[in-house]
Structures are given as C-alpha cells and as structure tokens.
Amino acid sequence: MARRLGQVDERKSEAILDAAAALFADKGLQAKMDEIAKLAGVSKQTVYNRFASKLEIAQALASKRVEDIVAPLRGAGDPQTVLETLALTLLNRVCSGDKVGSMRGVALVSVEAPEIAHAIYEAGPRRSLRELGAWLAEQTRLGRMSVADPEEAAEMFAGLVLGHGHLRAMLDVPQLDADKRAGRAREAARIFMAAHPPTTAAKTS
Fold first, then answer.
1. Distances from the Cα of 147 to the Cαs of 125, 140, 174, in angstroms?
2. Contact between 147 and 196 (Cβ < 8 Å)
3. Half-sphere exposure (CA, 13 Å, Cβ side) for 34?
4. 140, 77 in Cβ contact below 8 A?
5. Residues in contact with 7: Cβ distance below 8 Å, sequence separation at least 6, in sequence order
6. Tens digits of per-residue pLDDT, 19-58?
7. 162-170 — which CB contacts under 8 Å span 24+ positions?
C-alpha cells in the first residue's frame, strides 16, 4: 500500500514539474502556482505540499535535467563511447524541437529574477559540469585520458558539443536534425579524446 501511494506521489510530482516546465517556457515567472496546479491536474495545495515556491520547482526541474544528462557517466564503457553517449544526450536535451522552450523559459526568468536564474544555473548546468569534471579527473587518474584541468575541460567539451545549440533554442530557429546530432556527438567525442589521449601506460596495459 505504501509503495502504491509513493508511486502516486511520484506521478503527481512529475506532472507538476512537466506543467511548470511548459508554463515557464511560455510565461517565465509570470506563471502562477494555480496555473501549474490546473495544468498538472492537481490541487494548488498539492503543489505547495511538494514545492514551497517557484524557486524550488525551478531547482527541481534543473536537477532532473542534470540527472538525465549525466546518466552516461555512471555507466560502463571506454571514455570515447561514454563521451559520445553523453554528447548525444546533451544535444537531444537542448536541440530537440520539443525541448527548446525550456531555454526560452530560463532566459525569461533571468530577466525577471536573476537570483532564481543563478539558482537554476547552480542546480543545473553548473552541477553537470562538476560531475563531468569529476569523471574526467577519475579517467585521468586511471590513465584512460590525460586532462590537466578537468573542470575547464568539461566546459570546453560542452561548448564543442552544443555549438550554437543554446542560441538556436532561445531564438527558436531550426536545430540540428537527429542524424546531424548523432554525427556531432561522434565527432565531438573523437576530437576531445584526440586532445586528451590515454597515458602511455594505459595504452600498453
């Protein structure tokens, strides 16, 4: 019974976050909690029971996005394969037609409430860079790559992968199609590995 109730609560939280993402993309912080509740199909009190404010909702959305993006870092595989999977996941999150609204939502929030935009950045993009940096440091420790500054390299990898992806999303201009995203992911991983090759010991082991 408790498990079933937990699943119901999780579905309600997911519905609230999905509704908030759609409304934030359209209205920024002008979106009201009762609008979020209505779109999610729950009561306004249910929204407040799970998220005390729009800031908490925005942070939860950013955190959920990060979990999806960095999931490949927790799997097995050689570094180039992991980086290619990560790159494709990132491109799909930013460049897919049904995802671009979230970037415009963040842009709207940044104008209205810079402190919330900062919190979103810390919970989302900044955290993903830290996780990638930690993974790069571990790969370097194992001799599978040679990265002098993992955090700096993490940001450079994200830029290599996305190119103008964020800008296209905010301006709502045509994005890379699925085939080009896959090609971009492969090439970004190849270039990055060429710049940070395994150590000699790792190559010969």
1. 20, 6, 34
2. yes
3. 0
4. no
5. none
6. 888 887 777 777 889 999 999 999 999 999 999 988 888 8
7. 162/90, 162/91, 162/94, 162/95, 165/91, 165/94, 165/95, 166/94, 166/103, 168/95, 168/100, 169/94, 169/95, 169/99, 169/100, 169/102, 169/103, 169/104, 170/100, 170/103, 170/104, 170/107
